[in-house]
Design brief:
Structural class: alpha+beta
Shape: elongated
Strand content: 15-25%
Number of helices: 2
Length: about 140
């Protein structure tokens, strides 16, 4: 294991819903997730007019759990708002993936062309170095 590798323990929680009282306000603990999902989901939720507040936290870096707080505007429930947010985020990810896969062949071709140009430049530099070495040898 290298220095940058960290073994992260698995969370005993997959999904836990916390909170009592009004159904429009809940905290969701999602296991085996971190800031990546937390911030993206919070952003999508706060863009929804049905949601009054959304925030997230990762209580401790060594605990693989993200807590997402949702306060929806009645009559929307927090569970319905979270479900809608997850669906929206999933659709956005699908769009990004589709665009990426669409451009990937062009990126691969660009990479090949750049590597060929770099190799050509390196070869030219090597040739120039050899010519300079030959000139130096002849002067001696």
């Amino acid at each position: 294991m290298s220095v940058n590798e960290v073994k992260v323990k698995r969370s005993p929680v997959t999904l836990q819903i916390k909170g009592t009282g009004s159904a429009s306000s809940r905290t969701f603990a999602i296991g085996n997730e971190d800031h990546t999902l937390g911030n993206a989901l919070r952003h999508v939720l706060i863009q929804n007019a049905k949601v009054g507040f959304s925030g997230y936290s990762v209580p401790h870096p060594s605990d693989p759990v993200v807590q997402i707080r949702v306060q929806a505007n009645p009559p929307t429930t927090a569970i319905a708002a979270l479900r809608e947010g997850c669906e929206t985020l999933s659709k956005q990810c699908d769009i990004v993936l589709e665009k990426l896969e669409e451009k990937l062949p062009y990126v691969k071709q660009d990479k090949i062309e750049i590597e060929e140009k770099i190799e050509q430049m390196n070869q030219e530099d090597d040739d120039e170095d050899e010519m300079i070495d030959e000139d130096d040898a002849m002067e001696e």
